């Protein structure tokens, strides 16, 4: 089967976290871009599920690549959609409220700037970000529907607190992100930290609640690296592989792109399942979070 973009092709990309070179290598392997990251995907659709920044060496480069792909794909009959991740919220809070104190269950009393750094924040992203980058980040939708798929960043039901329809959800999140109101930001950051909602005995019920509210037959999300969930499994693959939960209603595609040597993947979806999984080429993309 050809990987070249077709009208029904929809690809999803989980948490990138600054792993720019690895991302471009996989987009190129999927024939969505050339080797320099320029759109070649024709009419394909690509949805990025958030968390472009932090942990890896070039979060700002990832942001600018995705912004460029949005523009280029639209000119060539394709479509790129980029969702909001919790690390974008932390990054923007570190800029907007650098000295404001918050209470973290993990770190105790800590400023927003310190909290961002403790969660992998990279100072070059902070100092290099432009006004246009910031505007784009603030305006990312919280969730998106594509055919049978409901797409979001987090494996969380927190979205239901912000709207009972997709339109209401995205509008209310946009209001939080574009309003200077520290208490609302604090609550939103805390809510966005929730994870693993679709696992366990109540996972299917929670997934069904999300689908009833926002539509679709299946959920696809990132936020929680699959390696963290499968590490005790005897068949564990340290590279990561798409992982179903919620009684087969929720698909996790966070492949630990910035955490694991040669980990990470991008996924082409069919109407109801995983179609194609593209992994990084067999060369070492490993880096420390403080690599230049």
Automatic annotation (TrEMBL):
One Pfam assignment: Metallophos
Boundaries of every Calcineurin-like phosphoesterase domain copy: 10-226
Gene3D superfamilies named among the record's database cross-references: 3.60.21.10
Single GO MF descriptor: hydrolase activity
The protein, known as: Metallophosphoesterase
Organism: Deinococcus maricopensis (strain DSM 21211 / LMG 22137 / NRRL B-23946 / LB-34)
